[in-house]
Design goal:
With about 475 residues, this protein is α+β, with helices and mostly antiparallel strands. The protein folds into three domains: about 5-160, no CATH class; about 200-315; about 330-460, Nuclear Transport Factor 2, Chain: A (Roll), CATH 3.10.450. It has helices spanning about 5-35, 40-60, 75-90, 95-100, 100-120, 120-255, 260-325, 330-345, 350-355, 385-390, and strands at about 360-370, 375-380, 400-405, 410-415, 430-440, 445-460. A six-stranded mixed β-sheet has the order 2-1-6-5-4-3. The chain is rod-shaped, with a radius of gyration of 62 Å. The protein starts with a helix and ends with a strand. Mean pLDDT is about 75; it is low at about 1-20, about 20-50, about 55-70 and about 320-330.
Length: about 475
C-alpha cells in the first residue's frame, strides 16, 4: 500500500463519514419538509432542529481529531451556490408575492454564510447556506400552498357569486311578483271601497224611500180626513136642501092666503135654490181642488223632508269623521255587550254605574226638533247626565222601542206621549228620543266618547 495513501486513509474515512452524515441529514431534512405544511411553527422548529443537527455533527467531527475539523471550500461553495440558486428560483415563482419575509430571511442567511466563509468558519457557512436553501424552498412551498388556497378561494367566490346572482334573480322575480300582488290588492281595495260606497248609496236611497212611503201614508190619512170633512159638508148640504123643501112646502100652504107673499116667496125660493145649487157646486169643486192640492203638497213636502234628512245625515257623518278617528274602526261584537250593560244601568236608574261607560272627555249634543226643524241645540259634559236623568229624561217616562248595534253610530230609540196640545182628531202625538253613541277603546275597554240626543216633539201616530 502506498504510504501516502495510508497516511490519508483516516482523513478519507472521516470525510466519507461526514458525507454519510450529510446524506442522512438531507434525508432527515426532506422528511421534515414533508411535514412543513402543517404550520409555520412546525416548519420553523424543523429548521431549528436541522441547524442543531448540523451544529452537533460539526462539533462531533471536530472532536474526532484534526482531520475531521476541516471543511473543504468546494463543499461550502457548492452549498452557497445551491442556496443562491434556490433563492433565485423562488423569486421567479409566486413566493416573492406571498412570502417576501421568508425570502428576505433566506437572503440574509445566504449573506451570513458568505461572511462566515470569508471568516474561515466552514461549519457555520455550511449550516447557514443549508438554512438559506431550506428557507427558499420553504417559501416556495408556502407560496404554492397559498396560491392553491387563493385559487380555491376564487373558485369558491365564483361559486358563491353565482349562487348570489341566482338568489338575486329569484329575489327580483319575487319582488316583481310582490309588486303585482300589491297592485292586485290595491285594485281589490278600490273595488271594495266602490262596493261600500254603492252599499251606502243604496242604504240611503232605501231610507229615503222608506221616509217617502211614510209621508205618502200620512198623506193618505190626511186625504181620508179631508174626505170625512167633505162627507160632513155634503151632509150639511143635504140638510140645507131638506130645509129648502120644507120652505117650499110652507110656501104652498100659504099660496091661497097670501098670493103676493107667495109670489115673493116663490121668487125667494127660486133664488135660494139657485144659491144652494151654486153653493153645492162650489163646495164640491173646492173640496176636490183642496184634496188634489193637499196630495201634491204632502208629496212635495215628503220629498223635501227626505232630501233634507239625507243632507243633514251626510253633514253629521262628515262632521263626526274627524272626531271618530280610530273610533270608526270598531269591533261591534266587542261593543254590543258594553252597550247592553250601559242600557241596563240606565233602565234600572243606576246612574253612577251608567256614567262609568263614558270617557273622561265625553260630550253630549242635545237637539230638539219640531216639524222637522231644529228649535234648540246645546252641548254638555257626559258627567252631567245625572241631572238630565233626574228631570226630563227619567227612565220611568220613556218607553224603549228599538235599537241598532250593527253599525256606527249605535242608536237607541225611546218614546213617550207628547205634552204638546193635540189639534187633530184621532191623531196621537208622541215625543221620540234617539240616542246615538260613538265609542273608542281605552286601556283595552270600550267606552262612549260622544253621544247625540235627538228629541222629536209632537210626532203624530195614526195607529
Amino acid at each position: 500500500m502506498n504510504p501516502h495513501q495510508t497516511h490519508n486513509r483516516p482523513a478519507f474515512e472521516s470525510f466519507t463519514a461526514f458525507e454519510d452524515a450529510k446524506t442522512k441529514s438531507c434525508v432527515v431534512v426532506c422528511r421534515l419538509r414533508e411535514g412543513m405544511d402543517l404550520s409555520r411553527r412546525n416548519q420553523i422548529g424543523c429548521i431549528a432542529l436541522f441547524s442543531f443537527m448540523i451544529l452537533s455533527l460539526s462539533i462531533f467531527f471536530s472532536s474526532c481529531g484534526g482531520g475531521l475539523g476541516n471543511i473543504r471550500v468546494e463543499d461550502v461553495d457548492t452549498s452557497i451556490t445551491d442556496a443562491k440558486t434556490a433563492i433565485q428560483a423562488a423569486y421567479f415563482t409566486s413566493a416573492a408575492k406571498y412570502e417576501p419575509t421568508t425570502l428576505s430571511h433566506a437572503q440574509s442567511l445566504l449573506e451570513e454564510a458568505k461572511k462566515a466563509k470569508e471568516e474561515k468558519d466552514g461549519f457555520k457557512a455550511l449550516r447557514l447556506a443549508q438554512e438559506a436553501k431550506s428557507e427558499a424552498e420553504l417559501a416556495v412551498n408556502r407560496a404554492q400552498q397559498r396560491e392553491a388556497m387563493d385559487e380555491e378561494i376564487e373558485a369558491l367566490k365564483r361559486e358563491k357569486q353565482a349562487e348570489i346572482d341566482a338568489i338575486r334573480r329569484n329575489l327580483q322575480a319575487a319582488e316583481r311578483e310582490s309588486t303585482k300582488i300589491k297592485l292586485d290588492v290595491q285594485r281589490l281595495e278600490s273595488r271594495l271601497e266602490q262596493l261600500e260606497s254603492d252599499k251606502r248609496d243604496l242604504a240611503m236611497q232605501l231610507s229615503e224611500q222608506q221616509r217617502a212611503d211614510w209621508k205618502a201614508k200620512q198623506a193618505e190619512i190626511r186625504v181620508s180626513e179631508l174626505e170625512q170633512q167633505l162627507t160632513e159638508i155634503q151632509s150639511e148640504l143635504r140638510s140645507a136642501l131638506l130645509r129648502q123643501r120644507q120652505a117650499e112646502k110652507r110656501a104652498q100652504e100659504f099660496t091661497a092666503q097670501l098670493s103676493q107673499e107667495l109670489s115673493a116667496a116663490r121668487s125667494q125660493a127660486a133664488e135660494a135654490k139657485k144659491m144652494t145649487q151654486a153653493a153645492q157646486v162650489k163646495s164640491s169643486t173646492r173640496a176636490q181642488n183642496y184634496t188634489v192640492k193637499i196630495d201634491e203638497l204632502e208629496r212635495t213636502k215628503a220629498r223635501e223632508i227626505a232630501l233634507a234628512e239625507a243632507r243633514k245625515r251626510a253633514a253629521e257623518l262628515q262632521a263626526k269623521t274627524f272626531q271618530s278617528g280610530a273610533e270608526s274602526m270598531i269591533v261591534l261584537d266587542e261593543v254590543q255587550p258594553v252597550v247592553m250593560s250601559w242600557y241596563e244601568a240606565w233602565k234600572s236608574k243606576q246612574f253612577d254605574e251608567h256614567l262609568t261607560f263614558y270617557t273622561a272627555d265625553a260630550t253630549v249634543d242635545k237637539i230638539f226638533i219640531i216639524d222637522n226643524q231644529e228649535k234648540q241645540k246645546s252641548q254638555f259634559q257626559a258627567q252631567q247626565l245625572g241631572t238630565e236623568f233626574s228631570r226630563e229624561f227619567n227612565p220611568d217616562e220613556w218607553k224603549f222601542t228599538r235599537y241598532n248595534t250593527k253599525r256606527m253610530p249605535i242608536t237607541y230609540r225611546f218614546s213617550r206621549p207628547s205634552k204638546i196640545t193635540q189639534k187633530k182628531r184621532n191623531v196621537k202625538l208622541y215625543d221620540i228620543w234617539i240616542r246615538e253613541l260613538w265609542c273608542r277603546k281605552e286601556d283595552a275597554n270600550w267606552k262612549i266618547s260622544h253621544e247625540t240626543w235627538k228629541i222629536y216633539e209632537g210626532v203624530p201616530s195614526f195607529r
